[in-house]
Design goal:
Elements: E1 11-15, H1 36-48, E2 53-56, E3 64-65, E4 68-69, H2 80-88, E5 95-101, H3 107-120, E6 125-130, H4 135-138, H5 152-167, E7 175-178, E8 182-185, E9 192-196, E10 201-205, E11 217-220, H6 225-234, E12 237-238, H7 245-258, E13 270-271, E14 274-275, E15 277-279, H8 283-297, H9 300-311, E16 336-337, H10 345-359, H11 363-370, E17 376-378, H12 380-392, E18 398-401, H13 411-423, H14 436-440
Parallel strand pairs: 1-2, 1-18, 2-5, 5-6, 6-11, 11-12, 12-13, 14-18, 15-17
Antiparallel strand pairs: 3-4, 3-16, 7-8, 9-10
Helix pairs in contact: 2-3, 3-5, 9-11, 12-13
Length: 449
């Protein structure tokens, strides 16, 4: 296949699957999501494919449905930074991104953990900054659900600003060497951080110098207006949910447009939507594979669970293989705990009902239709070409891939699609830098004044 004269190269990251029904647990190839061997396999596959980074989600409480832990929720949730610290020892170039809440952590402690990962990995750490506003999750923490939803980004903004001040508090020449003293800290080279804000008060000196990449790459995933503005002001990468070309272009244009008022250039923020894929030797075979994957991901129990989240009421009496019942959504959506609540459920339910009636879909087929996951379906050549089209159309700068099998689901993509992307000249054949900022084409962060 001839090399194209593309203007833009794309970025790739790997998301470790396993949240809810993403992974097809019934597949005999599906393994543990707790054993270190699973994390190691996916990370090494991503590094073999020359991916930018490996991404871990986070869950601070097991989700519940109708007062019970959902049977199809993940079977355990390891702490992200611990796993990534272990992976730092067995990978060489791959970036290591962890999701950590800015709501139920403290800046000094988390800044220190992230700086430690950044040093252990020699500049490959990233922090996906998330906020948590529900009291259900907060019950696991001393302060509980004290934070109003309206305050979550003000706390996150102050949190991140303080973390950066801590990371920047050591001068570049802070550490010196002497034949008699060995390595020592120069007098006056470590500044004292004094912060008295609305959410935090910190006074002291940080324990670590700046890492090889300055400080960790910042990832953000919020899609509200506040989230987009927070990302434009602070993030290096956005983990976007906009998977279609049209939605992706609108989101891309909106967020990139916001950068100027924060003194930033478009290339300083990478937009990488989550993307799934289904491959086949032909496009037709890939479509068959995608349909089979979706039916395995949305079994009868899962279909009912999705419907209950939208309708806000117990729907277990209705056959998931039968038609949508003539039942109105409940006024109170308290049936599901620990999940992001569906905004304007009545409108969403009305849309679902209209689709079910138009296409004569069963409950299960309706859920499959309305929660479609496969972003890219086709032969390896088709998938590679389509990904390039997204990047050229400025609908994305790259993709965070979410395979449907743990941990081997990324292997076919690396073996069959990556070589085509490389041949087309839109993806690296070798790492040219050592830090995650190098991989993403990001300059060293500006030092906090």
């Amino acid at each position: 296949m001839p090399r194209t004269a593309s203007r833009r190269r794309l970025h790739l990251a790997a998301h470790f699957p396993g949240v809810n029904n993403t992974t097809v647990w019934t597949d005999p190839r599906s393994g543990s999501q707790i054993d270190f061997a699973s994390f190691l396999h996916l990370a090494r596959t991503a590094e073999r494919g020359r991916f930018d980074f490996f991404f871990l989600a986070e869950g601070l409480r097991l989700r519940e449905l109708k007062g019970r832990v959902h049977d199809l929720d993940v079977a355990g949730r390891p702490e992200s930074l611990t796993v990534l610290s272990a992976l730092a020892a067995v990978t060489e170039r791959l970036g290591l991104a962890g999701t950590v809440s800015a709501t139920f952590n403290e800046p000094y402690e988390l800044a220190r953990r992230l700086a430690t990962l950044d040093h252990l990995s020699e500049g490959r750490a990233a922090w996906n900054v998330v906020t948590t506003s529900d009291a259900f999750t907060g019950e696991n923490f001393r302060r509980g659900g004290f934070l109003d939803r309206a305050d979550r980004y003000t706390r996150a903004e102050e949190f991140l600003r303080l973390a950066r001040a801590l990371w920047d508090s050591w001068r570049p020449d802070a550490v010196a060497a002497d034949q008699e003293l060995g390595r020592f800290v120069r007098p006056g080279a470590v500044g004292e951080v004094r912060h008295h804000g609305r959410h935090f008060t910190v006074q002291g000196r940080f324990t670590l110098p700046r890492s090889p990449q300055g400080h960790p790459v910042i990832i953000q995933a919020g899609d509200s207006d506040e989230g987009r503005e927070f990302a434009a002001a602070n993030a290096d990468v956005i983990f976007s949910r906009h998977g279609t070309l049209e939605d992706g272009r609108a989101f891309y244009a909106d967020v990139k447009r916001r950068l100027a008022r924060h003194g930033r250039e478009p290339h300083e923020l990478k937009i990488m939507p989550a993307a799934t894929y289904a491959l086949g030797d032909t496009d037709a075979e890939a479509a068959e594979n995608a349909a089979e994957i979706r039916r395995l991901q949305v079994g009868p129990q899962t279909a009912t669970a999705f419907l209950e989240q939208i309708w806000g009421r117990d729907m277990s009496a209705h056959d998931p293989e039968g038609p949508l019942p003539d039942v109105e959504p409940a006024a109170d959506a308290g049936i599901s705990q620990g999940r992001v609540q569906v905004a304007d459920r009545l409108a969403v339910a009305a849309k679902w009902r209209a689709v079910a009636e138009e296409k004569r879909l069963s409950i299960r087929d309706l859920v499959i239709e309305m929660t479609g996951r496969q972003s890219f379906v086709g032969s390896p050549e088709t998938v590679a070409r389509r990904m390039e089209e997204f990047v050229e159309a400025e609908a994305a700068d790259g993709f965070i891939l979410v395979p449907h099998l743990t941990p081997g689901g990324l292997d076919p993509f690396v073996d069959r699609v990556v070589p085509i992307l490389q041949e087309r000249g839109v993806f690296r054949t070798e790492y040219t830098g050592t830090t995650l900022r190098d991989h993403l084409g990001l300059a060293a962060p500006r030092r906090t004044p």
